[in-house]
Amino acid sequence: MRILGKAILFLVALSQLGSTDCGGDAIRDSGFDLWCGDQLCAWKVERGEARRVATWNKGDSGVELVGSDAAIEQLSPYNSHDGTCLKFQLVANIDPNAEVYLNVDLEGDGTIEMTERLPSASWRPLSYTFSMVPLYDGIRFELTKRGAGTAVLANISAKAAPSSECTGLVPLDPGPRRPGAACREPADCASMSCGASVTPIPSNVSDYVCGGCSDPCPTGTVCGLGDPLSAIFAVPSECVAIGAKPIGALCVLGDECGSSRCENGVCSACASNTDCAVGACVPSAIPADAPDWVRWHPQPMICGGDHTTPSAVACGNDLDCASGSCTGAPRGQCWTDGRSCLTSADCPFQGLLSSDCFIVGVEGGSCQ
Questions:
Q1: Which domain holds residue 366?
Q2: Which tens digits make up the pLDDT trace of 296-329?
Q3: How far apart are CA 183 and CA 359, in angstroms?
């Protein structure tokens, strides 16, 4: 990855500006109104049970953390472009024999930078203000409960606060910038490598990101595309095993691919017609039900296509094969930057919502 100097200080990614809802909240479904059956839609239950319950206001619902060890979490794309001072507020009904904590995990890497125990309360408003060191790429909010007592939470919000409200607070620091994290200059990154995002189409997560390749890469590896650490990070450069990637995987070099061919940012079976024993070298077919945006993303080049690719020859999906059957692992693409996905939770955010994921075919496919 190209190293950038201090001259690009101002070229920080702008695409995540406004990572809040229309009310400026960094948290989705702050009122616990969105339920998918008996499960929260916007919050993930880590352990125990989260139960929908009534609150002091008949028009509002809350969530009860059920069990002696229960926790819910939400990853927010709110980042340093949105603000460095944040106010977290909620209304709580907590028994004295229940221990409830708010944990703040910058960048969602599992390291808790702040823990606050919520006091016993009877529908009491609670507020916590904290500041963060820029740069940071997102926040994971976690609410946990231990003990047998009742704990019900409602009306949660997290909004940018004036910097004056964070005066005197020790800023939370996510630590060294990891591969795929936003950067301004090499010194921002643990790897001392900061360069343009290298996905097949521009990343909406960050224009300039920390690289993960050593110089040089170990024997048997090459500096290619790695797996993003989460939806709030860009696809990073990493030292990857030579020839390890199947057809359909993202790439920047042919050496990453088992086929030794990387065409338009995707491991492919061919680069030209001369590579094909049968048929022409064409892009893998796009399913008829695919949204229009899928057509913006490069597809692997395969031999034949359009129901002509013979048995045992590489394919991208069933539409390529004469048999109508292409077997392989599911291959999805994110609307935003073409990264691999199985569900929208794997994709970068658009505001507070994950962007779309579409299963376009298979990876490492072979016609039957």
A1: 249-368
A2: 999 999 999 999 999 999 999 999 999 999 999 9
A3: 31
